Amino acid sequence: MRYYPVFLKLEGRLCVVVGGGEVAERKVEALLEAGARVRVIAPEVTETLRRWAEEGRVELEVRPYREGDLSGAWLVVAATDDPGVQEAVFREAEERGLFCNVVDKPEICSFIVPSVVRRGRLQLAISTSGASPAAARRIRERLEEEFGPEWEVYLELMARWRREILSRDLPEEERRVLFNRLALAPLPEWIRQGDWHYVRALAEKEGLSFPEDLK
Predict the structure, then answer these.
(1) DSSP tag of 57
(2) N or C: which end of the chain has fewer CB within 10 A?
(3) A single GO BP annotation from the record (predicted)?
């Protein structure tokens, strides 16, 4: 099966999670991190999900799923081990034209969730197209070693410099050359090793501000 890779903008969108166990909890946490508005529907839920509901972080309906529960949703996750509920949630999602993930059931999903490496602004998504979640996890672990915490600082620095450069009245070609020059510099390595004097020298050479607060 072939998939189209995409990053979804979920800020403020309603996402319905059917299920209340530990797997559902992890799915809800990821959706909240993306800024989604999350509604959880399940007859039983974890203490963490209850606490999030009390804190107003999620909407919680402690009852079994029933047809019509996906009304108004933008994305759906079925995180339950009940095959009948899984099928019913996916069927309703299909009828409503909604993105739906049924955990560990790629054959009845309209999308699958990749294994992800996060370093601030950087997100690396790994998928084996459902062939082997264990292999995806192994690849993620290798990438976590290669792309360490320095990449979070690096991309924050690049974002600041990008805004600074775009604020200048520079010809497009000159901007492009400057962006490429900065991208080719070994900034992640300098940051990882604490060689901030090299970063300062580059900033001065290109007429850019030096990020004292990122050191």
Answers:
(1) S
(2) N
(3) siroheme biosynthetic process
